[in-house]
Design a protein that fits this description.
Elements lengths: L24 H24 L11 H8 L3 H13 L3 E4 L3 E4 L4 H21 L7 H17 L3 H17 L4 H25 L3 H24 L2 H24 L13
Antiparallel strand pairs: 1-2
């Protein structure tokens, strides 16, 4: 049977539309994570160097103007910084830089001492490369102290201590230590800014810090966890002593009496 011919008036069928390009979820997710990482890093550094002072409100508009980050990356970054202990969110009020008041510092030192002792107790001192990594951190520490780059000093010091925490191979211990090292950096940098003009005191303090760091590395090499706990506890005491000394210092008691006319 011959094929039926199409009428001359019949319109040709429309071509099928080309399929629309689809957004690749993996790429979109990667871009979002990258923006969040950038936002978190920028806000974190501003909190640690105190350019975002304790108690500062962190609203979307302010973050956009200061860091150029959109609402979604900014909120995701703030949630991350909440988990790191640098930001707190108050119901119906928003996000704020975590305060640094006397009560907060007291609570910090209680937790920090416990964390450092946990690190020493659980540290797997025979982990390959641990002592060598600590040596590298300590060498870097000496250099940034000599350069008087105090913000970098706090970063390198935290890296040394977090390397010990990482050697516990216990994620709960590591997370606890990471959160507290963020606070330690903030407190330490605050104190460095207060005592930067007291060269003799700084030199004496750094001599003791370097001694402790050397003892930490030597103890790791001996695989002596009990001694490591003892040294880390002593090191926390040195940090606490420094904070108390700086906060107690005042020149007001030595001020001359007002002149009477």
């Amino acid at each position: 049977m011959p094929a039926e011919r199409r009428s001359g008036t019949e319109r040709p069928r429309a071509r099928a539309a080309a399929p629309r390009a689809r957004r690749v979820p993996e790429l979109a997710a990667t871009a979002s994570v990258a923006q969040t990482d950038i936002a978190a890093a920028a806000i974190r550094e501003s909190i640690l160097d105190l350019s975002l002072s304790p108690g500062t409100r962190l609203d979307d508009k302010a973050l956009l103007g200061r860091f150029g980050v959109g609402r979604t990356p900014a909120r995701e970054a703030l949630n991350r910084l909440v988990s790191e202990g640098l930001v707190e969110i108050e119901h119906n009020r928003g996000a704020f830089v975590r305060p640094l008041d006397i009560e907060t510092i007291q609570q910090f030192f209680d937790a920090y001492a416990a964390s450092e002792r946990l690190n020493g107790f659980f540290c797997r001192t025979r982990e390959p490369g641990l002592a060598e990594d600590l040596d590298r951190h300590q060498e870097r520490y000496r250099k940034v102290v000599a350069a008087r780059d105090w913000l970098e000093v706090t970063r390198v010091n935290a890296a040394l201590h977090l390397r010990i925490a990482a050697a516990t191979q216990n994620q709960y211990v590591i997370d606890f230590a990471t959160r507290l090292q963020n606070q330690a950096r903030r407190v330490s940098y605050f104190i460095y800014r207060m005592e930067h003009d007291n060269g003799r005191t700084l030199e004496q303090h750094q001599t003791r810090v370097n001694r402790d760091h050397g003892d930490i590395v030597a103890t790791v090499r001996r695989h002596d966890n009990a001694a490591l706990v003892e040294i880390l506890t002593r090191h926390v005491g040195l940090f606490h002593e420094r904070i108390v000394r700086v906060l107690k210092a005042t020149r007001g008691l030595d001020a001359p009496l007002p002149v009477r006319f």
